[in-house]
């Protein structure tokens, strides 16, 4: 899942981005409101983590412009402006959650995971495709209850496919969810990770779960 982190404090944004990537999320960072607004005009994100006190454009203005464009992307406000009026204004403008600074990283990760599950419409904690399962709380894949060993990119590709049961995911949409804008990769990189995932799924499932290529349409995770 690709997240936009909007935080002007360089050290804090670096620390948060690293922690979220360690939690197997794809993270892009914007350091001011204008850059964030431009990205939100052209890119799709599963979640926005938004500071309020930003250069060039205030976080509340970024949020207001998002919602005016009809964007339903979940927004977690993260700010030192923890007064009641700021919280109420942010929630009234369409924020989904509010976490004042300072905060514990574990709480941030828990709120991020909860917002992502809610946005995907997944009330179930564990998603299933045959004997393949994905625990959305601990963010771990299992086959027949045994944990799978996946690289971060393999994990990201499989998560996108797993959270869209019965749907073919186009290559370009898969690429957008797996790679950040500043990653040095092209569209064909997706085929490398699909190939690696197929081998791992075949090894653990003996061919019972696999990824199908639908020519001109995309990739589909299915049981056989």
Characterise this structure:
The protein is α/β, with parallel strands linked by helices. The protein contains eight helices and eleven strands. Helices cover 42% and strands 22% of the residues. It has a five-stranded parallel beta sheet, with helices on both faces. The two termini are 26 Å apart.
Helix content: 40-55%
Range of strand content: 15-25%
Biggest sheet layout: 5 strands, parallel
Query: For the residues shown, what is the average pLDDT?
Result: 89
Spatial sequence of strands, sheet with the most strands: 2-1-3-4-5
Residue windows where pLDDT falls under 50 for at least 5 positions: none
Question: What is the rounded distance between the termini?
Answer: 26 Å
Assembly of the depicted chains: single chain
Rg over CA atoms: 18 Å
Shape: elongated
- Report the structural category: alpha/beta
The overall strand count is 11
